[in-house]
Specification:
- Chain A: It comes from Maribacter stanieri.
- Chain A: It holds the Pfam family PALP.
- Chain A: Tetramer of two alpha and two beta chains.
- The complex is a heterodimer of chains A (about 400) and B (about 250).
- In chain A, a hairpin with a 2-residue loop joins strand 1 and strand 2 (about 15).
- A six-stranded mixed β-sheet of chain A has the order 3-4-14-9-10-13.
- Helices cover about 40% and strands about 20% of the residues of chain A.
- Chain A folds into two domains: about 10-50 and about 90-205, 3-Layer(aba) Sandwich (Rossmann fold), CATH 3.40.50; about 55-85 and about 210-390, Rossmann fold, CATH 3.40.50.
- Chain A has about 400 residues and is of the alpha/beta class.
- The longest helix of chain A has 15 residues, at about 25-40.
- Chain B is of the alpha/beta class and about 250 residues long.
- In chain B, strands 5-4-3-2-1-9-8-7-6 form a nine-stranded parallel β-sheet.
- Classes of the chains: A alpha/beta (about 400), B alpha/beta (about 250).
- At the A-B interface, helix 8 and strand 11 of A face helix 3, helix 5 and strand 6 of B.
Chain lengths: ~400, ~250
């Protein structure tokens, strides 16, 4: 089975481009050019140079000795938290800002949940001297104050999304509306592996540097390129897509996704899309999404703003439906406990999103010889206030 | 019987079409608003099926949709409200909404229900041309529904011709690069765009939408086009004056 996007952007039955005609010229321009542009030698050279000198890649693959002892398997951490700006998000924004330049765009818009993608976008806009507007849900602005300040300091304008649940899905709606209103000079940097084709595929390809590095790094450490499992948390699914990409067609590599169960999958306050979702259309693609029987998109919940999204990228819907990936979900409490455990066993404070991936050990038992690579997608600095409140640290 | 839209488009007049969100201001205003619109000389109606995430709409329609959903509007309730609408209303009725609620209802079941009720067409902005043609055109036609496509100032001539040949009613001509309800008045840019499309001599007449809010903009839009659609301005009027104020609004247009 093919787990990549086909020419029309479908992963099995999922994907496509369900966009209003107002967006057609923009999306079509991107669709026709993205592969050609991103694989030009000059583009690859500039992209790789920036990833190396500016982002700090390759990010280390770190053998987590104490965590491994605790959970009885060999755990490697892919340290995306050590990237400039503190998460994997910057891999994609570097790629897309170069794409925007090639397409002659002068104005950048983005949506953000936790603020990591917003910061990564504001960063590359500052780097390239481009105007930057970031849409962020009002609720997320309140719970991710440090990232809002960072974006402002980087020269971006942060516009609050005040409609609906006032979180990531609404910020995405607002960004799409902005793009409709500004069709000529603006490029929309989508931060996750979602949206109309070619976004899921383009974002996945930019993030695929994660699994590309894991392969040669693991070869150095273990003498083999393929681990037994790769594990990532999933909101829209960009770090997961990048972590899985080069293993999708390696049958011996188990693929594990951990979604946010919020207060419990059946609590009514959850973002566990694979468990609660049905096939539908959200933000321009056909995918699994949480919705009412009437087709209204429901408001998700997770303690982590970055996973607080009612859908999942079309690639992941296909991995779920086809059985290629195992899907689990971790509650707020499990994710917070896993974050604390990682902090105290390895001296690494993860983002709460990332904490969900580490909660896998609550749900799955690995064998002693299993090599498990976990995507440490982001660092926890931005979440300190939430950690302080939750663990009463102050 | 010919589709009511087709017949209406043959009339020798500029058409006034009104959009409103079903279930707004109150859940059960739907039928009354439709009847009053016809009574006051409106030529065609777009009944808005509210959606939680209306990407192509500005704040006015977004808020009316949120309010309608809060009032309890669902696809099933809308169909029940208008099940006998053809006993009292004879102008063309179009359901306008987003694709996901239709997909969840079941596209064929939705189309069948529309035919039973006497709905003449659908406007689903996020159902793209290629998906429609590959997967749904046969179903829409089976139930006598006209599917209406949008064009914008950014749509290329080639794409417009493609859309024209895929259409069999009218083309919804979005007046400017915008979501609904966001521009005030038309400038030279719009005039040029209207002229350009008019000069293409398309087989389908065009009806202009987005940015029509009063008599002046209606006149400007219909100088070359067959008609115009008013949405946000009508909803704002309902918000301010209540569901019984339909006549007042229509009189200000013509």
């Amino acid at each position: 089975m093919n787990y990549n996007a086909d020419e029309k952007g479908y992963y099995g039955e999922f994907g496509g481009a369900f966009i209003p005609e107002m967006l057609y010229p923009n999306v079509e321009e991107l669709r026709q050019n993205y592969l050609k542009l991103m694989y030009e030698d000059s583009f690859q050279k500039e992209f790789n140079q920036l990833l190396k000198d500016y982002v700090g890649r390759p990010s280390p693959l770190y053998f987590a000795k104490r965590l491994s002892e605790k959970h009885g398997c060999k755990i490697y951490l892919k340290r995306e938290d050590l990237n400039h700006t503190g998460a994997h998000k910057v891999n994609n924004t570097i790629g897309q800002i170069l794409m925007a330049q090639k397409l002659g765009k002068t104005r950048i818009i983005a949506e953000t949940g936790a603020g990591q993608h917003g910061v990564a976008t504001a960063t590359v806009c500052a780097l390239m001297g481009m105007e930057c507007i970031v849409y962020m849900g009002e609720i997320d602005i309140a719970r991710q104050a440090p990232n809002v300040a960072r974006m402002k300091m980087l020269g971006a304008e942060v516009r609050p999304a005040k409609s609906g649940s006032r979180t990531l899905k609404d910020a995405t709606n607002e960004a799409i509306r902005d793009w409709i209103n500004n069709p000529v000079d603006t490029h929309y940097i989508i931060g996750s592996a979602i949206g109309p084709h070619p976004y899921p595929d383009m974002v996945t390809r930019f993030q695929s540097v994660i699994s590309e590095e894991i392969k040669w790094q693991l070869k150095e450490k273990e003498g083999r390129e393929n681990p037994d499992y790769v594990v990532a948390c999933i909101g829209g699914g960009s770090n997961a897509a990048g972590t899985y990409y080069h293993f999708l067609h390696e049958a011996e590599v188990g693929i594990i996704a951990v979604e946010a169960a919020g207060k419990g999958v059946n609590s009514g306050e959850s973002a566990a899309t694979s468990a609660l979702g049905k096939v539908g259309i959200i933000h321009g693609c056909k995918t699994m999404l949480m919705q009412t029987t009437d087709g209204q998109i429901t408001e998700p919940y997770s303690i982590s703003a970055g996973l607080d999204y009612p859908g999942v990228g079309p690639m992941h819907s296909h991995l779920f439906k086809s059985g290629r990936a195992e899907f689990y979900s971790a509650t707020d409490d499990e994710a917070m406990a896993a974050g604390l455990e990682l902090s105290q066993l390895e001296g690494i404070i993860p983002a709460i999103e990332t904490g969900h991936a580490f909660a896998i050990f609550e749900h799955k038992k690995f064998k002693k010889d299993d090599v498990v690579v976990i995507s440490l997608s982001g660092r926890g600095d931005k979440d300190l206030n939430t950690y302080i409140d939750y663990f009463k640290l102050a | 019987m010919s589709n009511r839209i087709t017949l209406k488009l043959k009339e020798d007049k500029k058409l006034l079409s009104i959009y409103f969100t079903a279930g707004y201001p109150s859940l059960n205003d739907t039928v009354q608003i439709i009847q009053d619109l016809e009574k006051n000389g409106v030529d065609m109606i777009e009944i808005g099926l509210p959606f939680s995430d209306p990407l192509a709409d500005g704040p006015t329609i977004q808020e009316s949709s949120t309010a309608a959903l809060k009032n309890g509007m669902t696809t099933e309730i809308l169909f029940n409200q208008i099940k006998d609408i053809r006993k009292s209303v004879s102008i063309p009725l179009i359901i306008m909404g987003y694709f996901n609620p239709v997909l969840q209802y079941g596209v064929e079941a939705f189309c069948k229900k529309c035919q039973e009720i006497g709905i003449d067409g659908l406007i689903l902005p996020d159902l793209p041309l290629d998906v429609y043609q590959e997967d749904y055109e046969a179903t829409f036609k089976k139930y006598g529904l006209i599917n209406v496509f949008l064009i914008t100032p950014q749509t290329s001539d080639e794409r417009i011709n493609q859309i024209d040949s895929a259409s069999d009613g009218f083309i919804y001509m979005v007046s400017s690069a915008s979501v609904t309800g966001s521009k005030s008045g038309f400038g030279q840019e719009q005039e040029n765009y209207f002229e350009r499309i008019s000069a293409m001599n398309l087989k389908n007449p065009q009806i202009v939408g987005f940015g029509i809010k009063d008599e002046e903009t209606f006149q400007q839009a219909t100088k070359t086009a067959k008609g115009a659609i008013i949405g946000s301005a009508f909803i704002k009027h309902l918000t301010a004056n209540g569901a019984n104020s339909v006549a007042e609004f229509v009189k200000t247009i013509r």
